[in-house]
Every structure is written in structure tokens, then in C-alpha cells.
Design brief:
By secondary structure, the chain is an alpha+beta fold. The protein is about 50% helix and about 20% strand. It folds into two domains: about 120 residues, Phytochelatin synthase, N-terminal domain (Cathepsin B, Chain A, Alpha-Beta Complex); about 150 residues. Helix 6 packs across helix 10 and helix 7 runs antiparallel to helix 10.
């Protein structure tokens, strides 16, 4: 038996493994949903450095993994409202029932999110090295090849691609959860809701652009209960990152997260430039001001790309030679980027205020 649902990996902008695949589902349903990325407000987040962690080892692991670097946080509520997700927990290693459940829903045209541990994958950056609990996105199966068809970023962080996941790996992962970790196996079925609203309404895009300009100006702490960690928000997250960059980079032992996060800022500003083009088309605004802001976001996208590339190069030099003394160059670039970020946001806020 074999079943495949239509979908393509969505990589225009990075949200996370789950929501990128939800966007892929929506675009497959209606290509106009490619513009749904304009319908999300944004803020910046960074783990607050001066806080009590559950242990010194937790802080050390966060620093070495690059998790103190800032990230782009999208408001994903709109996407959530377009997808029906139901979850079932499996508490035994009756693999036959687990696989039958997944396959039956695939035949009813449901996509699947299955809790797995990437340690048991046949290949990928975590395979056989690190235990990484992850919701793998499944869009089909093939009994002849004894595998599920999945979409994964396990080979390249932040870049989704097709991936064949053997049934045997699911079985090993499930055994680990139940017997080693005393956990259940979560299976979520996902389907697009009926009678979806029209996407890319200009006023809706405008609303989220305004929300973004407000979010970035707000400096506050919020507590993430899931990770037991405080985060700094808005431009103050970038300010703190700028001040502490040298400390973070000298502790870094793994470059993938840093590259992924810098790339997210690069993608964000490419998106922002497209939003400006949309505003210039739909509303009577000062064209010269709009074009200036468009160019600002194009510049910011390139600046984040150059920062990413330069930091990666210097990190490789450090790993090869044991040290790198040129990181100050990157910190100077960050200072320039933070200034450009604020200037672009101020200009956008003024442009949006001019629209009645």
C-alpha cells in the first residue's frame, strides 16, 4: 500500500518546523496563501542574560548552542485559526495500531505530526548523536519501502526538504519514549478548515504592520513557562545582543542556530520590503517616502546576510586555529544594523500614520 498527499516544502521564510508545513498545506490548497506571511505581526526576542537558571549547566548549554542570539517571533494566531488539529496519545508499543492509525488518517487526506526523537533517524545532524524530540510532518507512506514520506529540516537547519522516515525508526523512537522516558507518543492529525476566509486583505496587512511597529518599540520581559526562561522583547533585545555579542560568540560551540536566526532577520526584511510594495500599490501615500523605506529594508536584509556570512567565517577560523581576534568587526556591524532597524521602523510608523 502507498499514499501521498500533495505538498511542497515551504522555505520562503522560517517560522518553525510545524508552521512552515502548515503554510505549505495552505498554499497547496490555494496558491494565494503564499501571501499569508504578510498577515502576521512580528517582535524580536532574546533570552534575558541576567536571570536565575535552573542550573549552571542549563545556561552553559544555551550559550554553547547559540540560543542567546536574538530571534524573530511571528504572531501565528491567524494560521492556527485555519487548520484543524486533533491529538491522540499512544501509551503502548503496539506499533501495528500506531501505524494503522497514521495510515488511516492519511487515506482520509489528513497530514500528520508525529512525536519522534531524531536520535533514531537514519541520517541528519542529530542522528545517533543527540536526543532531539521533534514533531515530524508526515504527508504519506509506502509499505513497499517500509517508510513514511516526511518533510524535515534535519539535514539543514531552517531548510525543509523531503525525507524518507523508516517505520523501524518510528518504532525505536516510540520504545525510547515509553520505556526510557515514561512518556506517551503524540499523534496530531491536521486538516485545513472548510470555507476559509479570503487572504491578503490590504487592511489586514496594514493592521499587522502597525502592530509590528508597536511591538518593536515595546521593551518588556516575558516568562516562557515551557522553558522556564525569561525573554527580552523588541529593540531592547537587539541592544542587549549588541552589548554582549563578544561574550556569546566566544562561548559558541555550534553554529547552526546562529546562522538560522540571522537568516530569519534577513528573510523578515525581504518580507517587509514586499509589504511596502503592497502599501504603495493599495494606498495613496508619499511615493518617495515609501520607496526610501523599501530600500531601507532591502539594505537591512543584505546587512543581516553579511553579518551571518562574516560570523560563520570567523567561527570556522576559530575552530581551525583555536581563536579569532576579529569579532569586533562583527560587533561594529551589529551596532550599524540596530540603528538601521530603528530608523526603518520610525519611517514605517510615520508612513502608516499618514494612511487614513
Amino acid at each position: 500500500m502507498k499514499k501521498l498527499l500533495a505538498i511542497r516544502p515551504y522555505n520562503d521564510i522560517w517560522l518553525d518546523c510545524k508552521y512552515n508545513n502548515f503554510v505549505g498545506m495552505l498554499i497547496n490548497h490555494n496558491p494565494s496563501f503564499k501571501n499569508i506571511i504578510f498577515e502576521m505581526s512580528v517582535s524580536y526576542l532574546k533570552i534575558q542574560t541576567k536571570q536565575k537558571f535552573s542550573s549552571t549547566n542549563v545556561k552553559k548549554n544555551l550559550l554553547e548552542g547559540g540560543l542567546f542570539f536574538p530571534e524573530v517571533s511571528y504572531n501565528l494566531e491567524h494560521i492556527q485559526n485555519l487548520i484543524t488539529v486533533k491529538e491522540k496519545q499512544f501509551t503502548s508499543t503496539d506499533y501495528k495500531k500506531l501505524h494503522e492509525y497514521i495510515k488511516n488518517f492519511l487515506h482520509e487526506d489528513y497530514y500528520i505530526l508525529l512525536k519522534v526523537d531524531r536520535y533514531f533517524y537514519p541520517n541528519g545532524r542529530d542522528a545517533g548523536k543527540f536526543h532531539m524530540v521533534h514533531p515530524v510532518f508526515i504527508y504519506g507512506y509506502n509499505d513497499y519501502e517500509q517508510c513514511y514520506y516526511a518533510i524535515e529540516d534535519c539535514m539543514h537547519p531552517g531548510k525543509l526538504d523531503y525525507y524518507k522516515l523508516p517505520y523501524s525508526c518510528v518504532n525505536e523512537s516510540s520504545t525510547y519514549f515509553i520505556y526510557e522516558k515514561n512518556q506517551t507518543i503524540g499523534v496530531r492529525t491536521c486538516k485545513i478548515k472548510e470555507n476559509l476566509p479570503k487572504v491578503s486583505e490590504p487592511n489586514y496587512i496594514l493592521y499587522h504592520a502597525r502592530e509590528t511597529t508597536k511591538n518593536l518599540l515595546e521593551s518588556k520581559l516575558f516568562f516562557n513557562e515551557q522553558y522556564d526562561i525569561y525573554y527580552q522583547t523588541g529593540f531592547s533585545a537587539l541592544d542587549e545582543f549588541n552589548k554582549e555579542f563578544l561574550d556569546y560568540i566566544n562561548m559558541l560551540r555550534e553554529i547552526n542556530i546562529l546562522a538560522l536566526r540571522f537568516n530569519s532577520f534577513q528573510q523578515l526584511h525581504g518580507r517587509n520590503a514586499l509589504i511596502i510594495k503592497s502599501i504603495l500599490t493599495e494606498y495613496k501615500v508619499d511615493t518617495s517616502k515609501g520607496k526610501e523605506i523599501y530600500e531601507d529594508y532591502q539594505t537591512l536584509s543584505k546587512e543581516w546576510e553579511m553579518l551571518k556570512n562574516r560570523t560563520q567565517y570567523m567561527y570556522k577560523v576559530k575552530m581551525k586555529k583555536g581563536k579569532c581576534t576579529n569579532y569586533k568587526e562583527c560587533q561594529d556591524r551589529i551596532g550599524k544594523i540596530v540603528s538601521l532597524e530603528r530608523e526603518a521602523n520610525d519611517k514605517l510608523r510615520i508612513l502608516l500614520d499618514s494612511i487614513i
